[in-house]
Structures are given as C-alpha cells and as structure tokens.
Amino acid sequence: MRRFARVALLCLGCGLCSLLYGFSQLALSLEQQPGGGRERQAPDPGARQQAGGGRAGARSAGRGEAGAGRYDYMKTRPSEKMHLAVVACGERLEETVTMLRSAVIFSIKPLQFHIFAEDQLHESFKDILDDLPYEGKVNYTLYPITFPTESAAEWKKLFKPCASQRLFLPLILKDVDSLLYVDTDILFLRPVDDIWSFLGKFNSTQIAAMAPEHEEPRIGWYNRFARHPYYGVTGINSGVMLMNMTRIRRKYFKNDMTPVRLQWGEILMPLLKKYKLNITWGDQDLLNIMFFHNPESLYVFPCQWNYRPDHCIYGSNCKEAEEEGIFILHGNRGVYHDDKQPTFRAVYEAIKNYSFGDDLVHSLLQPLELELRKTMHTYCGKVYKVFIKQLTKSIRDLYARRSKGR
User: How far apart are CA 174 and CA 68, in angstroms?
Assistant: First the structure.
C-alpha cells in the first residue's frame, strides 16, 4: 500500500511539472512580437499628433468603395499587394502620372497606390487614373496633404511644398505594414516587385532601405557641406524609400536630444526645432540625422535602384548600373523638363507617350534608343546603354510571362 502511494505521488508530481512547463511556453510565445526584434511597445503618439490623418479621411477616388481604406474590387489579400506612396503638389500632376504608368507597365503583383495631393489636383488624378487600362491589377486612394495641426506651417515650408509629408506616412497609414515611397520624378525600369523583395532581406533591426546620396565622396554634398550629422560616408537619398512601417511605428530611436529613446511620432518635431537652421534638404536631412544615430536600422541598396544625374554628369560612377543597367531612374533637379540632361528627358518622354497595349519594343524601346543616341555629346549620353539595358530585359521578361500565361 505504501509503495502504491509513492507511485501515485510520483505520477502526480510529473503531471504538475508538465503543466507548469506548458504554461511557461505559452507565456514565452505571447512575449514575442511580430516583425523582428523585441521593442518596448507604447501607444502611438502620432495618433494624437495627426490632424485628420486617417480619421478626417483620405478623399477616395477610383474604382471601389469610398473611404480611407482600400479599393478592393480585386479579391486579393493585403499581403499580395505592394503599397506605393507618392506626394504631389503644384505642377507635379503629369510627372506623377508618368511615374505611376511606369510602375504599372512591368509590375507583376497587384499595386495599391497611396496618392497624397493638394485638393485641387484630386479630380485631375481621378479623371486620368480611371481612364488607364489597369487590367485589374491596380487600386488607388487619394489623400489630402496633412500635417500635425500645431506645427503645420513649419512642416509646409520645409524645403519644397508638401515634401515633408513623407515623414508622416507611418502615422497616417496605420493599417499598412510595408510601403515603398517614391518622389514624383521616379521612373521604374523593372518591376516594382523586385525592389519590394528587399523587405525580405531586412535583418531583425532594419526598418527602412535607401540608396547613398553619392558614390564618389569627391563630389558628395553631405561630406563636404552638411552642418548636421548624416548617415555613412556620403549620406542617403530619400527619393526612393522602402519602409517596414510596422517596425517604424514600434521602434524607439536613439537621438542627440535626450538620453531617452523616442518613437517616430515623438522625435520629428524636436529634430526640426534643433536643426531647422542647419538643414538644406529638408526632410531628407532629418532622415539622415535619424539614421546617423540608428545606423543598424537602415538597409542600403545599390545606386542603380536610385540613379540620378550625379551618377553620370561628372563621369559614370555607378558601377552596378554599368554592369546591370538602371533599375529606377530619378530625374531630380527638373531634368525631365529642360534640356540640361537630354538622356533623362528622353526616357521620361518615351514612357509618358507610350500607349498601353502597344508593342513595347516598337513603340517604346526602339524609338527611345534612337533618341538616346542623339545625346552622346553629353556625359550621360556617352553611357546611354545603361539607360536601356535593364529596360530591354524587363520588356523581354514581360513578354515571356505573357507567353507562359496563354
């Protein structure tokens, strides 16, 4: 009888240990946060700062239901969509539409456009975008330009009108996990899917990806003239910015204003107040300062993902583009609209004038190459083949996908 009691007591003890182990594993699993890394969570301060944000509502346009959410005439899961944001003010309507067209031509997965624009541009955007033959792979939402109410005037006059809107995208688009922000003067020469895939290459600490401002320090702006901290050797360019917005909203940033780490919505205004007399390029400078103090949070992609005039006007200095071609063209300094860099303008005009459904080889590629040959008297024209190398491959790959789909 005594032996039976000992056996029963031993079994009871083993069962109790198993139960305690199960509870400990459950508690451990609940501590893990999605999106990589463990960060202290707190209520999002941007929700209180944002004037209107997502509440006052994005003015919606296009196919689908109204509201700041989505136009889900496509039966797709959110994870299948690539989210692309752009901010358009002033005379940037045509340039923005041309950029969006370039994204549509080659991309494979569905696209969700988030277009932040001045109110007077909304109807024009709606009229143009509704007439484009999307073939069922694009949705879009129009939003007003929105800044925190207590400091709206300061943000509006920072650098160019509306430019600093991009800083508030993580606070406005609260339901978007990841986002590709681009300036209006961007042209995609390969599918958006390919730069979107960099999200899968982020390590557990990285929250965003950008390209260097310069490849050659001898012509770099930040390392020669900046009066504030900047990332790396030559700084970073924010014209193409891939963001894991969930991680951005969750992260606490090191800074040179307080020993306490601050979240995205808490750090923007103090940064502006401290450095507003020392910054030249507005919101891009603020991003450089932030990633100077948090370098582990940035993924840097090569220059052919953000190819600008500086990469060829002083001689070719983007080796990756020389080898593989230009993936994303960035026509900053207004080069699409003047004669200073005819190579850039030729690519812009070719995509702007292309009619959806026409043969891409005969209607876009061949006429473009003829125009590019006329620019060989310029430094960028001397390397004109880098402007069509990837474009040629993108067209070939597109037709190959269509053939397989038949």
Answer: 11
What gap in Å lies between CA 291 and CA 296, rounded to an integer? Answer: 8
pTM over 0.90: no
Closest to 56 (Cα-Cα) out of 138, 125, 148: 148
Residues 101, 105, 109, 110, CA torsion sign:
positive
Tell me 170's DSSP state.
H
Rounded alpha-carbon distances, angstroms, from residue 393 to 190, 191, 270, 375:
8, 11, 46, 22
CA dihedral sign of residues 298, 300, 305, 308 = positive
pLDDT beyond 70 at 60: no
Q: Residue 297 phi/psi, 5° resolution?
A: -90, -5
Nearest of 344, 328, 307, 333 to residue 215 by alpha carbon: 307
* Residue located via tokens 């290459």: 201
Q: Is the pLDDT of residue 181 over 70?
A: yes
pLDDT tens-digit series, residues 344-401: 999 999 999 999 989 999 999 999 999 999 999 999 999 999 999 999 999 999 999 9
Q: For residue 58, give the DSSP letter.
A: P
Which residue, 375, 405, 361, is CA-closest to 313? 375
Burial class, 250, CB count within 10 angstroms (exposed 0-12 / middle 13-18 / buried 19+):
buried
- Give the pair of three-digit tokens for residue 201: 């290459």
In DSSP terms, 181 is beta-bridged to 85, 241
- Which pLDDT band holds residue 159 (cuts at 50, 70, 90)? low
* Closest C-alpha to 346, from 355, 336, 356, 354: 336
Alpha helices in 260-299 (DSSP H): 264-275, 283-293
